[in-house]
């Protein structure tokens, strides 16, 4: 069977705040497997940010302060090939090199995907999906700008810190947005070209029909005239 990998990316700050609110309400990822190269990370490689059953009620400050928080740069990590950097073992290579390898890998994997969309561009995402797979959704996508993340008011300093914690995701999102809009414009141009080709083809057929009708009319007139001459 043929498998098509697709994904949806989101503005890193909004996504981070949304995950914090999710965790604050008691959500955990204990059932999620972080298997890489055939094994799960050790507790030394991936310490927990909290003790107890969950991290419910944590403040945004606590959420940002945990250095092991997997919410940081989650989109890059989930799209990249972690085996290239030794999975969750941070001692395999220098941090700067690790970050570059992860970001490059995430960009390459994203580019190779059959389709990806952006939460902030729901209508364009629907359009691209339908054109890519030649399928139509029953109802149109709705752009919701009011989310749990949008209801969180943060000051500029907090905004900057979240961006710093997710600096890889910020760069990936800029890359994804540029690539997404390029694909959208390409599909729109292709659609316009196809529509223009069809119009030209229709005009060509119409002109041929009109020419045929004129020819029939001329032949009919000539036949009538000759018939009248013979009768006269």
Automatic annotation (TrEMBL):
Its main location: membrane. Residues 210-232 are annotated as: Disordered. InterPro entries: Heparan_SO4-6-sulfoTrfase, P-loop_NTPase, Sulfotransferase. GO terms for cellular component: membrane. It is a single-pass type II membrane protein. It holds the Pfam family Sulfotransfer_2. 6-O-sulfation enzyme which catalyzes the transfer of sulfate from 3'-phosphoadenosine 5'-phosphosulfate (PAPS) to position 6 of the N-sulfoglucosamine residue (GlcNS) of heparan sulfate. Belongs to the sulfotransferase 6 family. This is Heparan-sulfate 6-O-sulfotransferase. It comes from Phalacrocorax carbo (Great cormorant).
């Amino acid at each position: 069977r043929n498998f098509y990998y697709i994904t949806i990316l989101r503005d890193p700050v909004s996504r981070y705040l949304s995950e914090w609110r999710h965790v604050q309400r008691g959500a955990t990822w204990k059932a999620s497997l972080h298997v890489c190269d055939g094994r799960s990370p050790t507790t030394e490689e991936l310490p927990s940010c909290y003790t107890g059953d969950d991290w419910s009620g944590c403040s945004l400050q606590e959420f940002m302060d945990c250095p092991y928080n997997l919410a940081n740069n989650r989109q890059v990590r989930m799209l990249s090939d972690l085996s290239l950097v030794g999975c969750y073992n941070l001692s395999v290579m220098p941090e700067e090199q690790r970050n570059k390898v992860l970001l490059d890998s995430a960009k390459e994997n994203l580019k190779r995907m059959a389709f990806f969309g952006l939460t902030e561009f729901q209508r364009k995402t629907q359009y691209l999906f339908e054109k890519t797979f030649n399928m139509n959704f029953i109802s149109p996508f709705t752009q919701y700008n009011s989310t749990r993340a949008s209801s969180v008011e943060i000051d500029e300093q907090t905004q900057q810190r979240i961006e710093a914690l997710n600096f890889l995701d910020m760069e990936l999102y800029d890359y994804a947005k540029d690539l997404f809009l390029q694909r959208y414009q390409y599909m729109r141009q292709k659609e316009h070209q196809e529509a223009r080709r069809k119009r030209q083809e229709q005009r060509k057929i119409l002109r041929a029909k009109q020419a045929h009708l004129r020819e029939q009319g001329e032949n009919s007139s000539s036949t009538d005239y000759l018939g009248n001459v013979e009768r006269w």
